[in-house]
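From the shared-data thread, chain only:
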Amino acid sequence: MAKTDSTGSTWRYRWVHRQNERRRREFRSADQAWRRRDDELRRLRTLAEEFQGSTAAGAGLPVELTPDEVVFWVLPAAQLVEVRHTTVLPAPDLTLTPATAPLRPRRPDGVRVADAGMAVITNRRLVLLGGRGRRDWSYGKMTGLAHDPHAPVTLMQVLDRRRTSGLMLPADVAADFRFKLTLAFADAIEQRGAVLDQLDEVIAEHAQLKPFRPQIATPAQARPFAFVPGGRRTVAVAAGIALLVPAALLDTDPSDPSGPEVAVAATPAPGASDAPAPAAAPVALPAAPAKVPPVASKPRRGTATPSPTPARERFCGAPTNPMGYDFCGGERIRRPAVEICDWFDCAPKFWAGRGYLVQCRDGSVSLTGGRRDACAAHDGVRRTVWS
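Structure, as tokens:
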């Protein structure tokens, strides 16, 4: 008797071991990703609540602050960029857009670098102290603001400047810069509470996405296909081959062992007279044999079957078929020929039907005639197929 202990001596226990290991790996990966995102959201929530500036932070900077202006953040490395073509940016808002992918340290097309220096975020403006001078973006005059989703570039438009410009930052600090710029803009319009409410809502939604620990698989849950190498996929491929082989055999024309009759000219019997023969009398051809019904065989692909009468008239609109099935009248068909689906458009699960042959309104044929649910999934019954 095969062992069935915890060592996995049978295929069911080996399946259980593989399933539980896979479920644990997937849970650990999902849980770690969820925790990283949760920690980041809570860090931003704390930063938004405690984000305060000071006048002392601007000491030593070559910029003169107004009496009510404080410095929030200073970034020593930033580049001034300008857009070559005229563009219209969306109005600045307080929407926090989570990063869907890491930002690539590249400069977008149509943007050129004009200067480099130190970026300063205050509660009144964003300032770049560059080598060629100073560039200010006042929040009160800002009409457009856009963050590039693929590159660490932030573009801005202000009323007193025609050309669109902005900052390009190191990729690893671009997310923090954007968040702090949003907080500074919210402070300027006295809407920091809206940012906090938005963060609370995002944290609550993220809490609902916390992954649950998977259930432990048991040997009773193992299915027979788990014993087959490749599992369900191997069984599906084998079933498909089993269905295709009979169809391919039916589609192949068997060779005809009886060749066509060849007419042979009559030759004179040995020893016949050499005298000239009299004029040949007309030879009466044998009478045509009685008409025999054609044998049900599928015509070769690419060749037309000659028909003395149009198929629509002979079959009353039914497809030309060697079984003689038509829409004209006759006897109901309860056991159709096996090759019917080669000539008619059979409905799904055709052979599971329990009735007589009918054509549905969508053109397919079904073996559900006489039943209440005949052609229920195909717009109802159109007409009966007769033999």
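Confidence is low (pLDDT under 50) at residues 1-8, 254-309.
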